[in-house]
Amino acid sequence: MSLPLLISSLLTVSSLTLSSVASPPMVETLEIKPQIINPHLPKSLSSSKRFEGSSNLVNLKYHMGPVLSSSPIKVYIIWYGRWAPQQQLLIKDFLLSVSPPSSSSAAVATVAEWWKTLALYTDQTNANVSRDLVIAGEYSDHKCSQGTHLTRLSMQQVISNAVRTAPFPVDHRNGMYLILSSVDVTVQDFCRAVCGFHYFTFPSVVGATLPYAWIGNSGNQCPEVCAYPFAVPSYMAGGGTPALRPPNADVGVDGMISVIAHELAELSTNPLINAWYAGEDPTAPTEIGDLCEGVYGSGGGGGYMGQVLRDQQGRTFNLYGKSGRKFLVQWVWSPVLKACTGPNALDYLEKH
């Protein structure tokens, strides 16, 4: 992985039905056409994007390792610290939107359509990344068993505790373990070098090699770094590009979901750091999310986000979830197109 300012990763790296949420149904959400916008990123926040869809600069290779091809992918969530139920529902709504709906939807700009690009990645047996994802378990570590400051090593102890004492199995075949830290938890390199990362556990600590990802809620610590474009640096106050309004009115969690999408895309295609990445150094690979950092829609690159949508309440988004909830997440690199891709805001509007 690279070390971008906005979304970066230093090293890389009971099935659930969503309970009722006061979200508008999809058909009502889509009755009013959103506005197309293409915000410009400040130079200081866009200079790290070296690729911007140019296949001439990308040498993405497969290194013979596994991808998460077993279906469904099972996500085991560890809620570290104190979380509001509505924040948890928002994140779970995004995760549960990855699987394709049982019936076709009128909307093409969905989380499930975004994940289709990941399903193009295969392993050496030609098995594709699974398109189905379930939340297989949740564990609340609200007392912060490893303290309110986590290091990379103590984070693995959090997973060890969950596997050994909580209702989490050791799922080698199709499990991924997701540590989500709350606003009051600090983490090694958080805000300074990373907003999230993925890696795998050490058998000496956890007793098994398991792919995992950590993402922190930056709402009270560094939203201008890890929740951009929903917050802007203080030096930009009163001028420059204004902050965009988050789709779910929670700067920290809306920004966090974009980082979750970035890390899950890379975790599913490079779970043990020996599958899909560019570069020759496996301790610092450039992965499919890094290649498209800062690109959220058609026309992205060169300091622009690309064409995204703004609804009647001024909320900025580019994807719909299953319940009609809105999200803003970056595009990912396609091994077929050899470019950044995702549901296209312009295409979506032309069809509706």
From TrEMBL:
The keyword Acetylation does not apply. Residues 1-22 form the signal peptide. InterPro entries: EXORDIUM-like (IPR006766). It comes from the Eukaryota. The keyword Signal applies. Keywords: Apoplast, Secreted, Signal. It is found in: Secreted, Extracellular space, Apoplast. It holds the Pfam family Phi_1. GO terms for cellular component: apoplast. Its main location: secreted. Belongs to the EXORDIUM family. This is Protein EXORDIUM-like 5. It comes from Carnegiea gigantea. The lineage of its organism: Eukaryota, Viridiplantae, Streptophyta, Embryophyta, Tracheophyta.
